[in-house]
Amino acid sequence: MAVVESREWYLASYAPEGVPTSDHLKLRTVTLSLDSIPERHVVLETLFISVEPYLRSRVTGREDGLYTPQFNLNEVLSTFGVGRVIRSKDSDYVEGDIVVSPLTPFAEYGVVPSQLLTRKIDPNDGIPLPEYISLLGVPGFAAWVGIEVIADPKPGSNVFISAAAGAVGMYAGQLAKLRGCRVIGSTGSDEKVRLLKEEFGYDDAFNYHTETDFDAALSNYFPNGIDVYLDNVGGKMLEAVLNHVNKNAKIPLCGMISGYNKVWTEREGVRNLLNLIGKEVNMQGFMVGSYLHRFGDFAKDMESHLKQGKIGSKLKIFHGIETFLESLGSLFTSSNVGKVIVQVK
After folding, report:
1. Residue 306 falls within a domain, yes or no?
2. How do residues 202-253 score in pLDDT, each as one tens digit?
3. Which run of H or of E encompasses 111?
4. Which segments of 154-213 does DSSP mark as H helices, in order?
5. pLDDT 10s digits, 325-340
6. Which DSSP symbol is given to 35?
7. Gyration radius of the chain's alpha carbons
8. Whether the Cβ atoms of residue 208 and residue 237 lie closer than 8 Å to each other
9. Residue 79: strand pairing partners
10. What InterPro entries does the annotation carry (predicted)?
11. Is 91 helix (H, G, I), strand (E, B) or coil?
12. How many beta carbons lie within 10 A of that of residue 259, not counting itself?
């Protein structure tokens, strides 16, 4: 019987507060049989796996905020990944196929239902494999939904993106620029300010660690007010934005990473929500799963932008399955730039 040894990350204990550590997420080695998989399943050799901020919300032991289902104790974590089929019990997939799955185990090898394989990759299409879980994955889709579907800005609109050098922010700003908007971003270092302006085409950006008076910063960068704010951080930045919104502004709420490691009673509140009424602002939270009917439109748009060189990516790749815990922790520091991915093979 053919078997492989596979290292996998599993949930040992819930982490209600703070960044998860090796007390919460642990690595173990298991033996996986290649010949006894169920019908309509495949065995994947994991190549690349996406490290997403929302994973933090799935190991708290409680359902609030994003209301994402919790991983069970002892369960292997899973997320979007790219893998190679090494065994198949489905005639639609053969050994050697490169596929994308939203439930790729955080493991070197894993058994996945073939119905959960969302895409078979053509190796001749010229798109680097990590882009399928970055620009063409959750971050790109979140940016596209936030800007193209919910905000739908007109040319000349004043657009503000927080966490602008992160996985979603880098694409959101570029999409807004393609629509002829004036785009400003906030980020956590002077180097990332440079990156936003020189590589991603932002009109300007500021370092929130040095420009700590957010209200003053927004007065400076938005003398004519804000028409669209794609929120990735929440907290004090959202409160400051609400003092500078124009009438009928749109605020797609993509994430609030400033509060992911805190219980709700310790998160910073927003005191000026009354401005939403007076300015008739549309502030809308969204989950990309509710827009899967638009995924085809998104993929067509973004593949076109990518192949024409209109949108670029910045990837932070960690090497080896053992680096997952470090890669997850990096999401909650100012050192992170772009999309975080673990290259397993």
Report:
1. no
2. 999 999 999 999 999 999 999 999 999 999 999 999 999 999 999 999 999 9
3. strand 109-113
4. 167-178, 190-198
5. 999 999 888 777 899 9
6. S
7. 21
8. yes
9. 104
10. ADH-like_C (IPR013149), ADH_N_2 (IPR041694), ER (IPR020843), GroES-like_sf (IPR011032), MDR_fam (IPR045010), NAD(P)-bd_dom_sf (IPR036291)
11. coil
12. 16
Q: Do residues 253 and 318 share a domain?
A: no
Give domain status of residue 225, yes or no.
yes
Counting the structural domains of the chain, the total is 2
CA distance 55 to 105: 13
State CA 72 to chain mean position distance: 22
Alpha-carbon span 204 to 14, nearest angstrom = 40
Residues 122 and 207 in one domain: no
**Judgement on whether residues 17 and 154 belong to the same structural domain of the protein:** no
pTM above 0.90?
yes
Q: Are residues 147 and 232 in the same domain?
A: yes
Q: From CA 22, how far away is CA 74, in angstroms rounded?
A: 14
Q: Any residues with CB less than 8 A from the CB of 121 and at least 6 apart, and which? A: 82, 98, 99, 100, 127, 129, 132
- Count how many residues are written for the chain: 345
Residue 206 and residue 94 share a domain? no
Instruction: Domain of residue 116: give its range.
Output: 3-133+313-343
